[in-house]
Design brief:
The chain is an alpha/beta fold and 225 residues long. It contains nine helices and eight strands. The chain has an eight-stranded parallel sheet with strand order 7-6-5-4-3-2-1-8. α4 (91-97) crosses α5 (107-120). The longest helix is centred in the first third of the chain and has 14 residues, at 12-25. The radius of gyration is 17 Å and the shape is globular. The two termini are 32 Å apart. The structure holds pyridoxal-5'-phosphate (PLP). Pyridoxal-5'-phosphate (PLP) binds at residues 36, 38, 59, 83-84, 167, 197-199, 213-217.
Length: 225
């Protein structure tokens, strides 16, 4: 007998329930699960919405603009987070669509976001992304410049900065990165910490994550772009 080459689609609602149980078991009763739906089509996202989930993350403005307006029309109270790098020329679109922008990482972008928020009369919450591993290819402000950028976002640009986000190096123990992010948040009086993904969210919760960003554990493996 030959087996089908097509893998059965994952049970998204069951996966969500399992992730929620693991988050709670890790002591994260109040932790928000940002379901990262990048690369997945509306057919894969709808079961999560139908199960009552409302917080989602995307990493590309263009892809999100193609998928989410229709889903936001069909389901109320969706909260959409941008978790990928943002080019200044996409700031207008991002302000229009997203409810939270987790990837604020440089003054030029902060200034543009402030301009676009004033123009749109819409103020998505902002998180400053910190490149805790100081990886040259990765977005995020270097840790040593984080305090200054946070201050500029607040005082100079008047952005609604609520927290910090990080994406630790894939091949390192994430714990020191989560600890560093928590330390930067504490000394800047920021209450929101977006850290932890499918492979390490339980550790992130130990270090005070308020938002975990979960893709694979909810939606299954991502198709290649
Ligand atoms: C894709 C992505 C995630 C989710 O990753 P998984 O390992 O699939 O859970 C989280 N955060 C960011 C910034 C991402 O780009």
């Amino acid at each position: 007998m030959t087996q089908s080459a097509v893998e059965a689609p994952p049970d998204v609602a069951a996966n969500l329930a399992e992730v929620a149980a693991r988050v709670a078991a890790a002591g994260g009763e109040n932790v928000r699960i940002v379901a990262v739906s990048k690369t997945h089509g509306a057919d894969r996202i709808r079961p999560a919405l139908e199960a009552g989930h409302r917080i989602f993350g995307e990493n590309r403005v263009q892809e999100a603009t193609a998928k989410w307006p229709a889903l936001k029309d069909a389901f109320e109270r969706v909260e959409l987070h941008l978790v990928g790098p943002l080019q200044t020329n996409k700031a207008r679109e991002a302000v229009r669509l997203f409810d939270v922008i987790q990837s604020v990482d440089r003054p030029k972008l902060a200034r543009r976001l402030a301009d676009e928020m004033a123009r749109a009369g819409r103020r998505p919450a902002c998180y400053v992304q910190v490149n805790t591993g100081e990886e040259p290819q990765k977005a995020g402000v270097p840790p040593a410049e984080a305090d200054a950028l946070i201050a500029a976002c607040r005082d100079e640009y008047g952005l609604p900065v609520e927290g910090l986000m990080c994406l630790p190096p894939f091949d390192e123990d994430p714990a020191p990165h989560f600890a560093l992010l928590a330390q930067i948040a504490r000394r800047n009086g920021l209450g929101v910490l977006s850290m932890g993904m499918s492979a390490d969210f339980e550790i992130a919760i130990q270090f005070g994550a308020t938002h975990v960003r979960i893709g694979t554990a909810i939606f299954g493996p991502r198709p290649k772009r």
